[in-house]
């Protein structure tokens, strides 16, 4: 992080991830992922649509998840 709290990514990593100005930081357990904002919104919508599909099944880990 720089002095203003920004996370600095090397140009080759930004290019590989297709990162431009707008990004999404997504928490994933004990790490986070940096996504291009438009790509994340598109993929997130597809994941939600897939979860709503009555033919889709949850993995065993998700089926057994409880609080």
Mean pLDDT over the residues: 83
Dominant shape = elongated
Span between termini: 34 Å
Strand content: 15-25%
Number of helices: 3
Helix/strand-derived category reads: alpha+beta
Low-confidence stretches: none
Strand order of the largest sheet: 1-2
SSE run: HEEHH
Structural commentary:
The protein has 67 residues and is α+β, with helices and mostly antiparallel strands. It has one domain. It is built from three helices and two strands; from the N terminus they run αββαα. It has helices spanning 11-16, 37-52, 60-63; strands at residues 23-28, 31-36. It has a two-stranded antiparallel ribbon. The chain is elongated, with a radius of gyration of 16 Å. It starts with 10 loop residues before the first helix and ends with a helix. The mean pLDDT is 83.
Features:
about 70 residues; alpha+beta; two-stranded antiparallel sheet; 2 strands; elongated
Brief rundown of the structure:
With 67 residues, the protein is α+β, with helices and mostly antiparallel strands. Helix content is 39%, strand content 18%.
How is the topology of this model organized?
Layout: H1 11-16, E1 23-28, E2 31-36, H2 37-52, H3 60-63
Antiparallel strand pairs: 1-2
């Amino acid at each position: 992080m720089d002095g203003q709290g920004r996370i600095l990514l090397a140009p080759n990593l930004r290019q590989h991830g297709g990162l431009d100005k707008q990004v999404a930081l997504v928490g994933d357990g004990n790490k986070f992922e940096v996504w291009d904002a438009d790509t994340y919104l598109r993929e997130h919508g597809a994941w939600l649509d897939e979860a709503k599909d009555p033919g889709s099944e949850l993995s065993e880990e998700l089926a057994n998840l409880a609080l």
